[in-house]
Amino acid sequence: MNAAAAAEAAARDSYGRLLAWLAWQWRDVAAAEDALADAFAAALERWPRDGVPDAPDAWLLAAARRRLLMAARRQRLADDPTLTVLWPDAHAAAPEAAPLPDARLRLLFVCAHPAIDAGVHSALMLQTVLGLDAARIASAFLVKPEAMTKRLVRAKAKIRAAGLRFEEPGADEWPERLAGVLEAIYGAYTLHWGLADDADAGELAGEARFLAELVASQLPDEPEALGLAALLWLCEARRPARRTGFRPLHEQDPRDWDSALIAQADDALQRAAAHRAPGPFQLEAAIQAAHTQGRLDGRVPWDGITRLYEHLLEIAPTVGARIAHAVALAHALSDPQAGLRLLAEIEPERVAAHQPWWAARAHLLAMTGAHADAEAAYGRALALTVEPRLRAWLAQRRQAEEIAAARAS
Amino acid sequence: MEFVLTFHQPAEVFEINDDPVRGAEPMQAWKLYMEAMVGAGVLRGANRLEQFAGTAVRVRGGKRQVQDGPFAETKELLGGYALIDVASIDEALKWAERCPGSAVGVTMVWPVRPSPAR
Predict the structure, then answer these.
(1) Is the residue at A356 inside a domain?
(2) What SS3 class is residue A360?
(3) C-alpha distances out from residue B68 to B53, B62, B72, Å
(4) Over the stretch A304-335, which tens digit does the pLDDT of each residue have?
(5) Interchain CB distance below 8 Å, B97 and A386
(6) A13 and A131, same structural domain?
(7) pTM for this model (two decimals)
(8) What is the pLDDT of residues B46-55, one digit of tens each?
(9) A379–B contact, CB cutoff 8 A
(10) How many domains is chain A built from?
């Protein structure tokens, strides 16, 4: 890691810690953000002149707290002009003991609270814990910047108005609440697949990975938290193989993979499995691990992968899992028609504009020898994605089917 | 909800698209894009426009002004439009992103104002 990246990582780490701590104390994410932004602005002005303080975090925290106190005083005086500025202040207690307790997990739980619209969980995490600005988040989610700003403001107002507790959830609601956090982090990770620009995509994937690692490190006994971290590590381990162009897993060269990261994921998966409580992220990671190992062994264990998908469908029958299961089953049975039948069972309105469904259908049609139909399906998949490397690969497949169809006729 | 997508592209892009050889690939992409919108059941209408042949008509103080386009105030020319019917603005933005023109020009997304009860 170079100096700039190290500085950036430190800033990212410290922004989330400071904001989580302030928001936890004040129960008000929006006010904490404003105060912290002011503190960072003051630092930019002061530090170059006076030098960087010995404890930059403590300096920023003190500055942000001063802002919050001033704002609170103004508010109280506006609410009740008879109050003097000497009202007792619970927040003005002694400065925080170092090191700052890490409240980021609590903030994540608040961001993914069931009272907040699930569609905004990921965006809220990216903004509060990682400090991404609304415009960038809007681009990543492909929504109007103004609409994203509104959604975030509304969510933060709800946190304050509903008095959502900044505490870790109790045992009764723990599994559901944790699932919400993990899903939102995974949602943030998958956003980068839609981004054509390598730098942006890598950065967003890195941010999501950071969150997944944060949760896994704070909850080392939660199998699903380990499962999510393992899943992201396995995906990230293969990133270098995608740099030169999109390749489906079975066409990738394992020498391009990051073997240390794969080993780390395997280790996390084993620790998760010891708890004997499988969940969607562990299963998805296990499927990725099976593919990865299969590529290394030269033989993909389609039977095992199909069974893992069946297990996954029992607990999380998502469209993505149903598509992947159809392909795995077709390979396991060497029967593309069986896979096509499963694809046809998915409701048409859910897949009419869903690129993976069309690509899977094209792949299975090609296996049956229906090259003209496969060509048309690849064409449809092509029109539904903007990722340039995936487009290049789909166009190549489409052309191959076009040639095969012409030869057959 | 109805939206009009307008496809704006620099003049040189239209020249390439109109060329039978260099235009083959981009026009194929446009064809697939339109077919995908039809297949998804969202397309209500679409047309290409003669982007170099626009004419501007203004009436100022009762006086007519007629001017031939393309017009200097925009570098990108309006080459066509599509009317789509989708569930939300988010979905409309997704179709705009997929438009082949978005990679070389800009696709604008305009919400259609609902007309008074018919």
Answers:
(1) no
(2) helix
(3) 7, 20, 11
(4) 999 999 999 999 999 999 999 999 999 999 99
(5) yes
(6) yes
(7) 0.84
(8) 999 998 888 9
(9) yes
(10) 2
